[in-house]
Amino acid sequence: MVDTVRIGGIKLSGELVQVDLSGSAPAEALLEDLFKNATAAKINIPHLHQGNAAAARQTTLCFAADDFFRLRQASTLATIPDRRCVVRPSAGTLTLFPHGCNLALIIRVIEALGKAGIGIYGISTSVSALVVHMDFDLLERGVEAVLTVCQLPENHTPLRPVVVLDGEAVETAAVYWEPRIRIYGMEVATDLRLLRLEMPSPLLAGGAIAMLASLQGRFRLLMLQKREPGMITMVIVVGPEMSNEIGELLQPMVDIDPHQRRLGISDVELVCFHGPHFQDRYGIAEMSCKEVRRSSLAIEAIACTGTSVHFVTAAGQGQRLATCLQNICILP
User: Fold this and answer.
1) C-alpha distances in angstroms, 47 versus 250, 278, 305?
2) What values do phi and psi take at 192, rounded to 5?
3) Between the CA of residue 117 and those of 145, 204, 283, what are the distances in Å?
4) Buried b (16+ CB within 10 A) or exposed e, 309-331
5) Helices and strands of the chain, counted as H and E runs
6) What phi, psi does 121 have (nearest 5°)?
């Protein structure tokens, strides 16, 4: 019998459209255009993560399906070459919480989905939740796979949120905007390492990183992006000791084919802020990224999902970045 990890709950999204933008100037211009039009149309971005790789920077965004079709008419998406803009028209997310910053748990979830033949479009993490992006029609199968390594409590919340009014189920969402972002708090974490692993995507499903499930340490941020053609990039932000442990485990696998597999490690700092109902507030991504661009600081990774916003910058730049972001936030 496989040992299972106790978790608090699993949440399945409605149908989403995932957009992956790669490249430099054209993609950055399109990203600004998407942000501007999404805010004007009061459209929220439930998940956004951005990372660098050897080929180019990539930004992954998700929109509710109905919102995306409105946004597409107002933006310049159609003008970007296919190689720079990949649209996945029927995506969904499986959110597992809390993850407890447990790297072993996430590796076991990835392995379980691979064994079930379920492709992963991306992974992002908030302070407490692990979000796995996949084909919308495979979400229920994804739950079955996850439950081979995880255990839900008997009184867990429904997989799909249901609001009951006068005895009938209704769908509701309170979407709103604030001129300054009201947050619970902001943290600057120093003395961290960013590990960036690039490899062919079939290796992920084939268990190439399964050895990481033996580690007991905690991560600060983890995200994965699917890149064309047929590559993935995984980013893990951890402390120095765990960075050494991960590097020692991954390097032999990378050395087998250094042309297709790459592992980079850099010194970084992490700025994170979170707040109530971020998932219901449109404009947060636009305001945050615009303020960071004004700072001219080098950004290694961005992850905005659920109720959390993470920016990873070079060592020694965290406090400057936090000061910049405080211009748009209301602190407690």
Assistant:
1) 28, 11, 5
2) -120, 165
3) 10, 11, 36
4) bbbbbbeebbeebbebbeebbee
5) 8, 19
6) -85, -20
CA 155 to each of CA 6, 144, 168, 253, 295: distance values in angstroms, whole numbers, following the listed order: 13, 18, 21, 42, 47
Instruction: Tell me which of 35 and 193 has the higher pLDDT.
Output: 193
Q: What is the pLDDT of residues 250-271, one digit of tens each?
A: 999 999 999 999 999 999 999 9
Closest C-alpha to 40, from 255, 311, 283:
283
pLDDT (tens digit, 9 = 90+) per residue, 74-108?
766 666 656 678 899 999 999 999 999 999 999 99
255-283: b (≥16 Cβ within 10 Å) or e: eeeeeebbbebeebbbbbbbbeebbebbb
- Model confidence, pTM: 0.91
Q: Is 325 helix (H, G, I), strand (E, B) or coil?
A: helix
**Cα 235 to Cα 223: distance, rounded to the nearest angstrom:** 5
DSSP state of 179: S
Distance between CA atoms of residues 306 and 201, nearest Å: 26
Question: Residues in the chain, how many?
Answer: 332
